[in-house]
Amino acid sequence: MSGNQAQHERNEARQLISGDDPITNREQDVLGRAKFAEAIAAEICSINTQGGAVLGLLGPWGSGKTSLINLISAELAERGCAIVLEFNPWMFSGADQLTEMFFGELSAQLGKKGQKLKGVAQEITSYRRLLTPLKILPVVGAYTERVEEGLDAIEAVITERGGSVAEQRKRISSSLESVEKPIVVVLDDLDRLSSSEIRDIFKLVRLTASFPNVIYLLAFDRLRVEQALGDVGVSGRDYLEKILQWAFDIPAIPDLVIREQIIEAVQTTLNELGIETRLDRDRFQDTFEDVLRPFFRNMRDVRRYAASIGTTIRTVGSHVELGDLLAIEAVRIFLPDVFSAIPRNRIALTSEPLKSDMMREHETRLIVELDKMIQSAGDRGDVIRQFMRRQFPYASQRLNQGYGIDGTTNIWLKDRRIASMPILSYYLEATGNTGIQALWNAESALAAMDDPEQLGNFFADLDPAHWESTLEAFGSFQDDISYDQAQSAIPVVMNLLDSIPERPWSGILDKGTIGNVLSTIYTLCKQLGENEELESALEQIYPRINSLSSRLCLLEVVGHGERGGELVSPRYSKKLESRLREEIRNSPRQDLSRERLLVWLLTWHNESRDGNEPELDILDDSEVLREILKRSIVRTKSKGFSSRRIVEQDPRLDWKSLSKVFGDEGKILAVAETVASDDDPVLQEAVQMVRKQLRSETCQASSDSQDQTDDSSSQ
Q: What are phi and psi of 508, to 5 degrees?
């Protein structure tokens, strides 16, 4: 293909997405209306124009009237049977200016059509001057109090302008009869004028419709014009029928053609941009039928849509599923009121409905907001219901529409669907929010998962603040993770636990940083099978986990403890427990003191220990004791459900865990007093909290004793 040919094809493709521009030639006629234009042109050429003629080209807004007029004009020019003049009534307002400028434009255009028509142009100019309302003359207005002078001036003007209106009409008619070809005056887009302007135009046509060899071709929406003509108390239809001799209704666009043009418009845009997109073809069939197709009534809608989606696809198209993107773009373009409500209703659209009585009022508010969105769509409310059904399953479920849920939040995130809050927010804001960034990171991690060293390097290069969200996003890819990848990734992920940052707690549903990481480990372990298959893999994995804290976390995921996932057999679980307790007892005390989950490790050891196993002797190691006391202070940072503000709560002492580690209050106090002289401010805080706790318990015990004495006395 030559460069010129390629450029020509690109230009033809762009024609479809050139906004609201009408077509100008047969080559652009995708609707097959050239034959209809030929038929109208042939009719015009055969009309007896001795008494003039008025033709109407009727069709609703956006039906292609201007394009059809262009085809008719081209056909008339090719046949050479008429002279075509165009007049744009949009350029003028008010009956006075309209009349003057209409005849002025007509005269000017005729003057350019050849020497024979200049005489007609001059006669029309004189007629225009005669019809010009007298109120624009300088002699009228400021001097109307001088009545006699005004009348004399008016008479002089009429004489100067060449006689009466009737005389001037005869001269114009005589000139027009000598014209070899009829003059076709095209007035387009009449339905876009105000009602008063429409009435002025039709008065003007009625005034001049009887001129010989003049054919008016009027393009308009019948219902709109009939309404405007009927506003003055007469039947708009009767008025119109008295003016039109011929009426041509524009053929409806076949549904198949609209469908083809929508798809071609989208494909042309994608080809122009060259952006790689994701499309679920099975889902798109339903989205197209139930959401996209109902928005398009004509080719103007198609062109408007195609011209508008390019920027959005260029900006976010690589990271939002294409079917969802096309659907929400249709809402943005055709129902802006509905679209404007989407950002403030993200929770209602993307969150799972909560069934508890405690959340009933909250859910009711969300349902009310969704109903408002549907109502704001007017007669397209059913389309928005389908939009919610196809693009926002939780919203549909919230409205009790009776449809099933086709996936989960993690799956929707992975598939880039706007049913996922991060994806919807990314579309609305065009920026990489936390959720979408986590998804991108998880994809990169998945690509490195075959090689433990490469995966480790990935996390080493990644900001630790993003580790948790990245690991949490692994759940979206659980079906894509192979056995070998899971076995390779688990030790790497477990070893992150020693240094992953603890973030603020965000509410009662928050599992915490460690809990979220363990959920990811559980997902990875599930890829390794169950029982013997998983146990075999764990024999390879366990030694590659560096810290005792992380090994305990793994045991919690697969074992049969109080919160265990029970992925292995009870026998193997006990084997791992015994192995870990022995490792804790044999661990160098300096290493033990550095364990992230030191208090939990020691508590677990003492609670799970078999009676035949030795106790853990740590009372002689001051470093371990100091760390136990410091780690027993619980500092909670929380973030409100509806607020981004982080609140740091007062620190408290985990007295329950201390009791499990040391056995009784006396030992706890003894440990505290042993390290009381240490200068570490955190340790000093812990010592003071121990003393306060013991004083409080002593006071409570004394109060209880006094109550018992009082009860005995009363008896």
A: -65, -20
Q: How many CA atoms lie within 13 A of 440 on its CB side?
A: 15
Position 300 pLDDT exceeds 60: yes
Top mean pLDDT of 199-203, 463-467, 696-700 is at 463-467
| SS3 of 479-507 | HHCCHHHHHHHHHHHHHHCCCCCCCCECC
Report which of 490, 324, 445, 312 is spatially closest to residue 392, judged by C-alpha positions: 324
Report the C-alpha gap between 28 and 34 in whole angstroms.
10
Dig out the tokens for 102 from the structure.
Answer: 């209409």
Of 237, 240, 201, 211, give the one whose Cα is nearest residue 55.
240
Domain residue limits, the chain: 32-249, 255-429, 441-627, 628-715
Among 285, 292, 284, which residue's Cα sits nearest to residue 334? 292
Cβ contact 315:358 at 8 Å: no
Residue 618, C-beta contacts closer than 8 angstroms, at least 6 positions apart: 589, 592, 602, 624, 625, 628
Exposed e or buried b per residue across 158-178, where buried means at least 16 C-beta atoms within 10 angstroms of its C-beta = eeebeeeeeebbebbbebbee
Residues pairing with 638 in the sheet: 505, 647
What does the block give as tokens for 163?
């006689």
CATH fold, domain 32-249, is Rossmann fold (3.40.50)
φ/ψ region of 158 (left if φ > 0, alpha if ψ in -120 to 50, else beta) reads alpha
Q: Taking Cα atoms as reference points, which of 340, 265, 254, 334 lies closest to residue 302?
A: 265
Rounded Cα distance between 124 and 162, Å, is 12
* Whether residue 9 has pLDDT greater than 50: no
Give 73-131 pLDDT, tens digit per residue: 999 999 999 988 887 776 655 555 555 566 666 666 566 555 555 556 565 665 555 55
Tokens of 471: 């690991």
C-alpha closest to that of 536 among 566, 581, 569: 569
Count Cβ atoms below 10 Å from residue 408 Cβ, excluding itself: 15
Bridge partners of 248, per DSSP, are 57
Backbone torsions φ then ψ of 93, nearest 5 degrees: -135, 145
- Output the pTM of the full model: 0.65
Contact yes or no for 49/246 (Cβ under 8 A): no
CB-based contact 36:199 (threshold 8 Å)? no
Q: Does residue 120 contact residue 110 with C-beta atoms inside 8 Å? A: yes
Terminal CA-to-CA distance of the chain, rounded, Å?
Answer: 112
C-alpha angle with apex 501: 493 to 540, nearest 5 degrees? 15
Pairwise CA distance, residues 291 & 383, whole Å: 6
Whether 443 contacts 437, CB under 8 Å? no
Other residues' Cβ atoms within 10 Å of the Cβ of residue 603? 18
Q: Whose structure tokens read 């298959």?
A: 533
Q: What is the pLDDT of residues 349-403, one digit of tens each?
A: 999 998 878 888 889 999 999 999 999 999 999 999 999 999 999 999 999 866 7
Q: What is the pLDDT of residue 705?
A: 54
Residue 217 bridge partners (DSSP): 55, 186
- Element counts in the chain: helices (H) and strands (E): 35, 9
- Cβ atoms 475, 461 nearer than 8 A: no
